[in-house]
């Protein structure tokens, strides 16, 4: 961070020197600010008719001197001071107010969103002396919806308020408020957020699935936030007030990232990350992340990386310098403009390269397929929502051991096996990556090669987990994706799986309604009717 931040244009050399002298000074840890420093910045502020701010660390060292304008200061990017989860930033901001006005709403917004230790405003008398010092800090247990506490104004003679103790007390209270949090587990801890116009029950179901996705990705979930709105603002998505609430939640829970259930467009992503100082991802990125963790084959890895980069590219934007307010807001520029340009170009180059590689693999696959077709074996593909039991069915049918797990997206790389029916008919049976609602478009594109495999299938087995409360919506999601992939003209059998977990009567009703065949994929003795149906359809 620059030690002198803000424009010094129009200032005299002697005034700049006086500003520079400030960051050599130190403030005893009990003091908000010393009388001498308060007097100096008040005087200087009064002379230059601009606000002056100081960022002070816990040792009382002045990390940065900020020159503002008449109305405010812009706080530089302090993300390098990334606070430990559940902790404050370790920086306090002390600044002058030329008008005789106590802490403003904007000051308090900065206090919370930037997780400052404290914020202080020094008001100045008409002849340039410090008048009063107004101090505010975060309130760990918000009272009546208030997130900050403002102390009674201090006189310049009484600035020893046991400042460091105060800050430590706030942090201790924060730790108590989030008593479930154990520090240092090394795991990511997330707050899940949904901003939506959908009815509550639908939004909650979607959040529940997001939670499963997070767990699948190895992320702990600390809390969920649902904000229902009449209309969603395409630019801002979420209001400042709500972001403040979320910041407090982050602090209390020691969260390390927030995950939005909605896909964030680049401008929403920027406007939110400009205001709140924490890692932000959305549902799509989470799914991409899981795919990246799971991909085993070279092809799978290439496809996922391609999807990730394509999603990332438009979102690679420097933090905007235009502040959300006159004072404060996270400023600075993130990575330097030029560094960012280089980064972007590299990403673009890599996308081109990966695209070519994927194409090549696709060609090879076509050749393999041609070879297989020469042998003339019919292909049966198992498809369905993630975690429905596709791999389990493949394993039981062919006595193989494809990985089966009770988590979303256990399978990414398709596997094929031969299967011999009782009447000596032989087929190829393939297991595929699971579907999910709102399957990211980037993934659909990247996994086109995998999905194109499905085009040559002679029969699709749509595996449905009927023990899941949302299985009907899931059938719709899957069949919609099949439509998008132009696969809805291939014969399809609906297979109602996990019948062992559902009452017989209910199963019978589902069989009628969905014209399906009920099985337990993990129990070979239940598979006969399905085998017969498959055999009949492929021999037809
Ligand atoms: N009770 C019961 N559990 C089953 C049955 N079939 C599968 N499961 C369980 O469901 C979970 C998911 O099974 P998988 O075969 O991995 O599901 P998948 O469809 O391949 O999932 P992804 O590859 O993640 O898309 C595992 O814990 C299985 O043990 C069944 O018939 N009955
Ligand atoms: Mg699987």
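^ structure tokens above, recovered residues below v
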């Amino acid at each position: 961070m620059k030690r002198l931040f803000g424009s010094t244009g129009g200032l005299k050399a002697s005034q700049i020197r006086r500003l520079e002298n400030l960051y050599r000074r130190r403030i005893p840890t009990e003091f908000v600010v010393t009388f001498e420093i308060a007097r100096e910045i008040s005087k200087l502020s009064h002379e230059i008719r601009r606000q002056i701010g100081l960022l002070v660390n816990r040792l009382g060292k002045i990390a940065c001197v900020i020159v503002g304008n008449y109305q405010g200061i812009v706080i530089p990017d302090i993300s390098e001071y990334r606070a430990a989860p559940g902790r404050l930033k370790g920086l306090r901001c002390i600044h002058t107010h030329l008008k005789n006005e106590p802490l403003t709403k904007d000051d308090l917004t900065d206090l919370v969103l930037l997780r400052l230790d404290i914020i202080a405003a020094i008001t100045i008398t008409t002849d340039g002396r410090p008048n009063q010092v107004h101090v505010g800090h975060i309130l760990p247990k918000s009272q009546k919806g208030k997130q900050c506490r403002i102390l009674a104004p201090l006189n310049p003679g009484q600035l020893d308020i046991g400042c460091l103790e105060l800050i430590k007390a706030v942090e201790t209270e924060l730790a108590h408020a989030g008593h479930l949090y154990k520090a240092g587990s090394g795991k990511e801890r997330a707050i899940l957020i949904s901003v939506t116009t959908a009815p509550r029950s639908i939004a909650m179901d979607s959040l529940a699935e997001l939670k499963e996705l997070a767990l699948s990705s190895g992320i702990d979930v600390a809390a969920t936030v649902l904000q229902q709105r009449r209309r969603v603002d395409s630019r801002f998505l979420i209001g400042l007030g709500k972001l403040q609430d979320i910041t407090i939640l982050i602090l209390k829970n020691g969260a390390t990232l927030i995950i939005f259930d909605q896909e964030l467009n680049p401008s929403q992503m920027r406007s939110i990350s400009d205001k709140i100082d924490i890692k932000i991802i959305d549902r799509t990125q989470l799914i991409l992340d899981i795919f990246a963790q799971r991909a085993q084959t070279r092809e799978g890895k290439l496809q996922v990386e391609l999807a990730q980069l394509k999603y990332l590219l438009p979102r690679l934007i420097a933090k905007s310098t235009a502040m959300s307010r006159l004072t404060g807001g996270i400023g600075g520029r993130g990575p330097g403009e030029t560094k960012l340009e280089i980064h972007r170009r590299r990403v673009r180059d890599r996308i081109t390269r990966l695209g070519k590689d994927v194409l090549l693999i696709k060609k090879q696959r076509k050749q393999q397929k041609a070879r297989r077709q020469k042998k003339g074996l019919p292909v049966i593909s198992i498809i369905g929502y993630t975690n429905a039991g596709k791999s389990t069915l493949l394993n039981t049918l062919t006595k193989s051991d494809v990985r089966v797990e009770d988590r979303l997206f256990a399978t990414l790389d398709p596997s094929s096996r031969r299967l011999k029916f009782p009447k000596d008919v032989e087929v190829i049976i393939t297991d595929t990556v699971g579907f999910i609602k709102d399957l990211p478009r980037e993934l659909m594109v990247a996994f086109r090669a995998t999905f194109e495999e499905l085009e040559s299938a002679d029969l699709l087995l749509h595996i449905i987990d009927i023990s899941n409360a949302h299985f009907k919506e899931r059938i719709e999601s899957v069949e919609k994706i099949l439509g998008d992939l132009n696969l809805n003209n291939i014969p399809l059998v609906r297979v109602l799986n996990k019948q062992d977990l559902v009452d017989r009567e209910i199963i019978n009703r589902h069989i009628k309604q969905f014209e399906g065949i009920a099985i337990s994929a993990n129990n070979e003795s239940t598979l006969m009717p399905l085998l017969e149906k498959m055999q009949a359809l492929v021999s037809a």
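DSSP finds 16 helices and 17 strands in the chain.
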